[in-house]
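Input chain follows. Return structure tokens only.
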Amino acid sequence: MILHPVAAAPQRFGYLGSTMFDEPEEAPAERPTDPATQAREKFDEFRMHAEFAAVFEGCRKFDAVLKPGLDAELAREVQKSVGRLEKAKVPDSPLISQASMEEAASVLSVAQGRELSTNDYHIHRRPGEVMIVRWLQGEQVETFYTRMQAHFDAALKHYREEERQSQGWKQDPQTLAYLEALDKLDARMADRYLRDVIRKHNVFILSTQSADELDILHLCDVVMGVEPAALLGTASAPSDAPTEQERAWFFKLFSLRGMKDGVEQMCFFTYLQKTDEGGW
């Protein structure tokens, strides 16, 4: 059985821009010229956007609640566990090694063991640093995959239409090949995130995505639909006229998926830190 990695390389998410992802700041000569490669990179961008949106839209779409006050020791335990699990993956795969499956199952069981609600965002914070943990199980997992697919499909459809309107008049082979490659980018997000593999083989999967500079206002205002102070705390929230530095936060998301007691479960651990405060 071949498992394809889904972990994403660090990106620059929506940093001080109107869109979720800024275009790469590189010279045209440095961009890939192969149409299939260009299309695949665009696919990965939309895939990451879809996961990001599905993870953090709970308050805006599904009555999820921000719950500050997560025990500091528990937050650190989860942080250390996902860090160890990231190092315990099978090489070139998001699959957790058999030796670490017990720890993965333990992370998924924290909400039940500590009587913490699923769907909600459990938050531990101190000035300049925020940890967020969100657990999903059963039907909540089904809804997550449905929403992630919807985000991906909408982004891809819009981009295809935009590219055909702006580039379709060019009849050169390179442009036509790129548009054709975009038309072939139909993907089922559940397949990309190995959902059937998890359910059939009772394994655990961990993927990550990170950004050196996440626009924290985009996350709060646009994606989550919450006041920055409600997520970050008054001491860390950007001012009414925020500078670029205030808006820029380091971001890393860990997405752990697996089966526990016959029920499909997920745990999302997010680490946020002001970029002038250090890093992960």
